[in-house]
Write a structure and sequence with these properties.
Keywords: DNA-binding, Transcription, Transcription regulation
Strand content: 15-25%
Helix content: 25-40%
Protein name: Lrp/AsnC family transcriptional regulator
Shape: elongated
Number of domains: 2
CATH topology of the largest domain: Alpha-Beta Plaits
Structural class: alpha+beta
Order of helices and strands: HHHEHEEHEH
Radius of gyration: 20 Å
Pfam families: AsnC_trans_reg (PF01037), HTH_24 (PF13412)
GO molecular function: sequence-specific DNA binding
Number of strands: 4
Largest sheet: 4 strands, antiparallel
Organism: Agromyces protaetiae
């Protein structure tokens, strides 16, 4: 599904308000039949509309209260191998390829500053990584959200 219609957007917004809502509750809220909601949810899921549940798990209680962003500069010819190696580091929770001066932006979680130093060292030790720049996240100011986007679409 490449585009969401008004009903899909309303369903996604309702799930944004209450991610644990049942099909029956969503149907009542939106004035739709239970079968319509069930079918729409199935199509949305099959289209890849829903991200991983892991995105909603807080790493703090798991013992990783700090978060940092590591800008990674790599030799372009080995970018894929570098990404594969970075993916093997358990504390890496996300990575994006970028255009511009930085090749990769890697989001990591850590126990403390010493742990962050160790993780940064693991990234630097990967063949093809030229250098890193690490920034400790001071706090999430705008959490991941799509509701404003759904409202403007």
């Amino acid at each position: 599904m490449s585009q969401y219609d008004r009903v899909d957007r309303a369903l996604l917004a309702a799930l944004g308000d209450d991610p644990r809502a049942t099909v029956v509750a969503l149907a009542e809220r939106l004035g739709l039949s239970r079968n319509t909601v069930q079918a729409r949810l199935g199509r949305l899921e099959a289209s890849g509309a829903f991200l991983s549940f892991e995105r909603s798990i807080d790493p703090g209680p798991l013992g990783f209260p700090l978060e940092a962003f590591v800008s990674v500069h790599v030799r372009q010819t080995v970018l894929a191998a570098v990404v594969d190696a970075i993916a093997e580091i358990p504390e890496v929770i996300q990575a994006h390829g970028l255009s511009g001066q930085v090749d990769l932006l890697v989001r990591v979680v850590c126990r403390d500053a010493h742990d962050l130093f160790r993780i940064d060292g693991e990234i630097l030790a990967i063949d093809g990584v030229e250098r890193t720049e690490t920034s400790l996240a001071m706090g999430e100011l705008i959490p991941y959200r799509l509701k404003p986007l759904l409202g403007s679409a």
